[in-house]
Design a protein that fits this description.
With 374 residues, this protein is α/β, with parallel strands linked by helices. It folds into 2 domains: 231 residues, Type I PLP-dependent aspartate aminotransferase-like (Major domain) (Aspartate Aminotransferase, domain 2); 92 residues, Aspartate Aminotransferase, domain 1, CATH 3.90.1150.10. Helices cover 44% and strands 14% of the residues. It contains 14 helices and 12 strands. A 7-stranded mixed beta sheet has the order 2-8-7-6-5-3-4, with helices on both faces. It is globular and about 55 Å long.
Length: 374
């Protein structure tokens, strides 16, 4: 065994000893889905799939983009999508990326520069942290959703400050105090970068996310929307000024040096937003299931619910969390354990995702199964 094999084997053994070794698994479609990010059910919607397939067939689209957007990968289809997305998100411009991860890498690695300061919520997504590592700016975390701590650190560090937050946090299910953060940002002349991953396609019947639904989109400098969750497909976009998207086109390495999304993927994104605009009942159905879950949780005296479609059950122990997940799966509910390093050691949890397609009976039975875990 050479040094390389010895190194990775030792690391894997450490993960195994701690009970944290990860393995890929194929979803069991017989189980009720309480784990995926397909909040509106678009990824499984046969009507939407048919519309996409018909459009793709009619246009005789190529299999792949064949290159980066700056070479052979640009086309009228993706430019039309960007115009549509800018209108949906009420921005001057939008630039499509291959994923939310790549969009966050692109923005954080290129926009804040040497001498700038990034202040980020301590529970920010891993892709943003990786983007920050690629930046030449200084970076510091502030306590989760703590506006007072944010303001203290703005005053302490000074300079041009970028505040980086999410609209809805994926592991706790709570939303950012957006209006308060905007107020602090204006007071100290900061810029805000908002990741709307888990509110894209949601918050109201337009699917335009948190900032637009609150009417504060013009107070946020950079917004990042992803399409692999409620939109049910893949890809992402950055919404903002024309100068911003032009800057990213010139300086964001994850945009410049990667093959563009395939025409098929671009068409799927476009049709998904059309589908949401027509089927305005989808978000209403999701919200109704969220409210029903919260009512059932309260009736069972199982603690305080989170804001919306992401709910959590803290178990604070990796072994207990995995055992609880397995127990729920054996009873027909696909609920996954969330373990370090995704969350801090001692905050292990079950993450329960609600969907427009979940039934009241499924929710009733899930709550019953959860109550028997305790």
């Amino acid at each position: 065994m050479n040094f390389f094999e010895r190194k990775i084997t030792e690391q894997l053994q450490k993960q195994t000893t701690k009970g944290l070794l990860r393995r890929l698994r194929v979803a069991d479609l017989r189980l009720a889905d309480f784990y995926s990010n397909d909040y509106l059910g678009l990824a499984r919607n046969t009507e939407l799939r048919y519309k996409i397939e018909q459009d793709i067939s009619g246009q005789k689209l190529s299999q792949g983009a064949t290159g980066s957007r700056l070479l052979s990968g640009n086309n009228s289809l993706i430019e039309s999508l960007e115009v549509k997305l800018a209108a949906i998100f009420k921005s001057s411009s939008a630039l499509v990326f291959n994923s939310g991860y790549m969009a966050n890498l692109g923005v954080l690695s290129s926009v804040p520069g040497k001498g700038d300061v990034i202040l980020y919520d301590e529970l920010i997504h891993a892709s943003i942290k990786d983007g920050i590592r690629l930046s030449l700016a200084d970076a510091y975390s502030f306590r989760h959703n703590d506006v007072d701590d944010l303001e203290k650190k703005i005053i302490r560090h000074g300079g041009q400050v970028y505040i980086v937050i999410e609209s809805l946090y994926s592991m706790d299910g709570d939303i950012a105090p957006l209006k308060d953060i905007i107020q602090v940002s204006k007071k100290h002349e900061c810029a805000i970068i908002l990741d709307e991953a888990h509110t894209t396609g949601l918050m109201d019947s337009t699917g335009a996310g948190l900032a637009v639904s609150m009417g504060v989109h013009n107070d946020i400098d950079i917004r990042i929307y992803t399409f692999g969750k409620a939109i049910g497909t893949h890809g992402a976009c950055v919404a903002g000024s024309l100068e911003l998207t032009s800057f990213l086109t010139n300086f964001a390495r994850p945009f410049i040096y990667t093959t563009a999304l395939s025409p098929h993927a671009v068409a799927a994104i476009s049709h998904a937003f059309d589908f949401i605009s027509i089927n305005t009942n989808l978000f209403e159905s999701l919200q109704e299931k969220v409210n029903y879950y919260k009512a059932c949780l309260a009736a069972a005296h199982l603690g305080n619910p989170a804001f919306g479609w992401i709910q959590t059950l803290l178990l604070n122990d990796p072994g207990k969390t995995k055992e609880a997940s397995l127990s729920l799966q054996q009873q027909g509910f696909d609920v996954r354990p969330i373990l370090p390093p995704t969350v801090k050691a001692g905050s292990e949890r079950l993450r329960i995702c609600l969907h427009a397609f979940n039934t009241h009976e499924e929710i009733n039975q899930l709550i019953k199964a959860i109550s028997e875990l305790r």
